Amino acid sequence: MTRLIDYLLLLLLMMTTTTTTYAVALDSQTGLFWQIVGPRPDITPSYLFGTIHSDDPRVSKLPPLIQQRLEQANSVVLELLMDIPTIQQASNAKFFDDSQTLDALLDPALYNKIVAALQPYQLSATLIKKMKPVAVLTLLQTPPPKNGNYLDFLLYQQAMALKILPYGLEQVPEQLQLFDAFSPAEQLILLTDTVNYINELPAIFEQLHQLYLQKNLTTLLTYSQNYLLAHSSHPTLTQTFLKRLLSDRNYKMLTRMLPRLQEGNAFIAVGALHLPGADGLLNLLVQRGYRVIALY
Questions:
Q1: In the Cβ-directed half-sphere of 149, how many Cα atoms lie within 13 Å?
Q2: Which of 16, 13, 15, 10 is nearest to 2 (CA)?
Q3: Domain range list for the chain
Q4: In this structure, how many other beta carbons lie within 10 angstroms of the beta carbon of residue 238?
Q5: What is the pLDDT of residues 188-216, one digit of tens each?
Q6: What is the pLDDT of residues 35-53, one digit of tens each?
Q7: CB-based contacts of 232: which residues, under 8 Å, 6+ apart?
């Protein structure tokens, strides 16, 4: 009887320690590359890589450990498939397909600011005039291109070269719905807020890259949220935007990656901001009975 009580006390202590450790980890999640160990010992562990949508050479070259796991994977899972039809669909969705134009929707002063802000993105005046407001918003939230070798596209290319079956967690219409859920007036507010701090974006992008290279996911998420809220004229709208952009998508991504996890040895790559926090993929995986172990 004494041994049984001792065993139960030990089990309780282990459960308490595990919970406490992970609760602390939510405040200091560090690592870009994680092993995912499932509840079934007969399934090979999978791997989760937090990426950044950038073609900066500092982030586009994979560390040897990550490269090795990619080459040995049974499947590669990305936010979107980077095949030609998907890229074409995403590109077409950025532009009005009728006579509507961006300059007709916006105040001339705001439109001129947008034209100036988009110069580093090497877009012609004709293309800018046909862009949808949400396309401008999302483009300005990413660094201007350097060489076009974006990390997520490079991962897809490698998967194809290695003849590894690729999967997408989302489709273009679903990502568009994220913005279509906002009214035209709300989209205009979000766009105007972004344009108003356009001169600060180069410094913000550099700080994001530095935090990414430091692998501190918690700080990266906090910084991203704070700079958006600090420049927001409607904080409640911005918080809704962040929820739809991250938390809501995390639950969908988790559901769609489960079949690959059950197959085992999947290489999953999504934006690093989807990993940390209470509603981040790391915590959601733990809640589903998986163990997550930082490898890099």
A1: 10
A2: 10
A3: 44-81+150-294
A4: 19
A5: 999 999 999 999 999 999 999 999 999 99
A6: 999 999 999 999 999 999 9
A7: 193, 238
